[in-house]
Structures are given as C-alpha cells and as structure tokens.
Design the sequence.
C-alpha cells in the first residue's frame, strides 16, 4: 500500500482518514509524520493536512476546501463566497470562514483564515463534486456581507459585488433577514436594493417588506463616512454619489 496515493482521495484529511489504513494509531501517526518529513504531505494546522500536488508542488486542497474542513460546522462565507461564485475579480488573501465552533485564525500557503461566528443556520450549501466545499448561497452571502460591512470588505467592495449579482431569490433574502431579525440589517438591505432595483430586477414588494422593519434609529450605513446624505425612507446616512464610488473616493456633499 502507498499511503500517499490513498490520501490523495481526500483534498483535506485528518488522522481519522490516516487510521483507516493501519491497525493502530501509533503506526498511522508514524506513517503520516514520514510523509510530512518527505514533503509529500503538508500540515495545514494542527490535525488538518493535505497532500502535495504532483503537478505543481502546491497543496492539493484549495482555500475553499480547506475552509470547509476546519471543523464539522465550518463553511465559506462573506467575500470569500463572492470569490467562489466569480462575482469579483479581486482576490483577497484573507479567507473568511463562518462556523458554530470557534477556531484560532491561522495562515497556510499564503492565505490567512479568519473565524466568523455563524448566527443563523440557513442558506448553507454543500457543493456537489467539489471535494467537500460548504458555502453560503448567493442570497445569504449578500446578507452577511451587508451585516458585517465594517468588519470585512467595506462598502465599496460589497456594493460592487451586489450589483454584479443576477437572479436573486427574494424569498430567500427575506427568510434570512427574518432569521437575523435586526432592524439595521433591514435598513441596509432595503436601501442597497432600492439603489439597484432596476438593474437587479427587484420587486416593489421586496422593498416594501424591508421598509416595514425599519425602526426610528438614524444610522450610518458604514464607518468612515465624512460627508454624507440622509435617506428619510431608510433613516440611513450614506456617501453622496454612492453608485459612482471609485477607489473609495466620494465627492464633497452636505448632509
């Protein structure tokens, strides 16, 4: 038996998979350590491994497969999910991973993996024939990115991703909004989709439903707005000429 070729069946694996080929854990661990020493297996983090590719010498597993295998509940989310769907052509070297269980951020193969606490259980897809990728669907990716807009990609990048979307399922969006049940999130989602209503084919009913959940609090849509305009409908302060944002530059404006 050649252990390396057996492990190639798993883009990401742990000792659980290695022990399938040995009668005891000690022998399995020695065999794995030899592969690591020979540089035919890479250690991703404690307890998580991938084989070395015979084609290019890099890891067999990609960042999406690694993110999905960190623990039993981990899945690709936020801007990293946009990257998977091909919504953005900008590659981040930060990989955003949502999970029910906390893990320490770590680096592997030039990428840094960041833990984000998952707050709802809906909108997670198991991608068939992908080597184990679990990821938020497009609708939840939008909701999560707007929810955490100050923590991850920022307003300009999120808006760029949203307006590149097509065939958005409004029922899913409303389902995820109801699961989060946050007025500020309804404000942001309703405002952004009212901006791109025509381009994205968003219905009046969807906008009206978001508006029902807007409270009385006046808020900034994101941090770092020096000059802003106030939307009375959504009770949000947003950058002037928001649809023409380029490289974070906004023309002067009066509130």
Sequence:
């Amino acid at each position: 038996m050649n252990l390396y070729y057996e492990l190639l069946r798993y883009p990401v694996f742990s000792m659980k998979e290695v022990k399938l080929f040995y009668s005891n854990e000690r022998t399995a661990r020695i065999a794995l350590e030899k592969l690591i020493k020979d540089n035919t297996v890479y250690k991703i983090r404690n307890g998580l491994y991938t084989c070395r590719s015979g084609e290019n010498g890099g890891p067999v597993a990609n960042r999406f497969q690694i993110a999905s295998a960190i623990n039993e509940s981990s899945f690709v989310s936020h801007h990293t999910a946009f990257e998977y769907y091909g919504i953005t052509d900008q590659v981040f070297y930060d990989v955003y991973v949502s999970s029910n269980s906390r893990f320490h951020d770590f680096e592997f193969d030039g990428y840094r993996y960041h833990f984000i606490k998952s707050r709802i259980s809906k909108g997670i897809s198991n991608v068939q024939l992908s080597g184990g990728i679990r990821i938020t669907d497009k609708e939840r990716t939008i909701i999560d990115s707007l929810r955490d807009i100050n923590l991850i990609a920022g307003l300009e990048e999120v808006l760029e991703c949203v307006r590149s979307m097509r065939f958005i399922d409004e029922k899913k969006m409303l389902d995820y909004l109801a699961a989060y049940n946050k007025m500020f999130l309804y404000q942001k989602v309703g405002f952004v989709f009212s901006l791109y209503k025509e381009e994205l084919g968003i219905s009046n009913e969807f906008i009206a439903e978001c508006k029902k959940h807007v409270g009385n609090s006046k808020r900034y849509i994101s941090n770092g707005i020096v000059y802003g305009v106030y939307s009375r409908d959504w009770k949000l302060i947003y950058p002037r000429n928001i649809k023409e944002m380029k490289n974070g530059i906004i023309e002067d404006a009066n509130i």
About this structure: The longest helix spans residues 25-37. The longest strand covers residues 111-117.
